[in-house]
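Reminder: ligand-aware prediction takes two inputs, not one.
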Amino acid sequence: MDTTKIGFDLEHRDKLITVTSPLLPDLSELMKSLEQIWKYKWITNNGPFHQKLEEELCNYLHVDYLSLFTNGTLPLITALQALGVKGEVITTPYSFVATTHAIWWNGLKPVFVDIDPVTCNMNPDKIEEAITPQTTAIMPVHVYGTPCDTERIQAIADKYGLKVIYDAAHAFGVEVNGKSILQAGDMSTLSFHATKVYNTVEGGALIMHDKETKQYIDHLKNFGFSGETEIVAPGINSKMDELRAAYGLLNLKQVDAAIESRRQVAMAYKEALKDVEGISFLPDLPEVKHNYAYFPIFVDADVYGMTRDELYGKMKKNNVLGRRYFYPLISNLSSYSALESAAPDNLPVANKVADSVICLPMHAELTKEEIERVIEQIVK
Ligand code: T4K
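Here is what comes back for the chain with T4K:
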């Protein structure tokens, strides 16, 4: 087996500090679940593990209705379909490409607005000026798991009759004043990709607020089938299978401990980097229960004396593999750069942030020595 074709050699990954490392369930526990699945011979299509994971995730996340998906991109695409979104969708350029791609895959026009320099989320002050008669929805992102200003976004949506779909791919378990961030908007989506705080290998979910919508989404993700011969709409196939649901149930038992370990990594980084001139990081918001999904730092080259890319290159040379999430900015990609709203003049903050960010290694298994090695790269 060739272990080298992913950018480094997996056989020697212990020498590298990667940006993340997946939370893996106990193998013997997983074997027990697999034995059950093998016994039932029911491996997908809303099986018992799938049903149980939906139930347990609703409890864990404090939401009433949730539908599992095969990844975090298809719920974005499906939410836009289910809500009948047409025309233009206001969104943020500062995200993973999946956010804007989901809009494009629905034949809709993304309209980019700039971000807030403190939270890196869509700036609510910029939304109203981007609304046209064609606008029907807003798709913000709780980037890095930091909550958007959901109250202001909702007030604007209500004023203009717009739908709001939150890309909450990074916001697993995040709460504001004790309330799940997933309660905001018409729908929210999660990603359970291997690189996320909570993973089901690949996977995701769509969160909605009523039983009828949950039922409709469940039909849509299964080709539109509502019974053996009834098809309610042109659906798609985006179901999670039993193996990944079983894996997900086991990971749910250890996700709190993983978030606590991540919190400790974040505290260590903050303590070590707080006085490094030219390096800044996101604020801890007292009303927020954070999940420590990512630890982005922002490099002010003039003050720090080294550009972001120089620091990134130095880290890489020393086997510390940070990542420039989210660079390049989506609006600068050739697929979208011709859009009027993609002009860099319209998005000065997002361009500046995308050009200065490095996400430091952040996962539950980082050792003290590894955290030290990361810090050494940055503290001169
Ligand atoms: N919306 C937002 C805001 C998102 O951030 C994402 C995904 C989505 C929507 C879409 O959700 P999904 O459809 O993906 O569920 C990664 C992920 O593939 C992607 O899920 C994620 N966001 C994005 C931010 O990052 P890459 O291309 O950086 O992944 P990759 O393969 O380079 O992995 C990064 C590092 O993680 C590796 O260097 C080591 C570690 N890793 C990765 C994998 C896959 C492991 O240790 N083991 C693994 O199995 O995109």
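The chain has a mean pLDDT of 97. The longest strand covers residues 65-69. We will return to this case in the review session.
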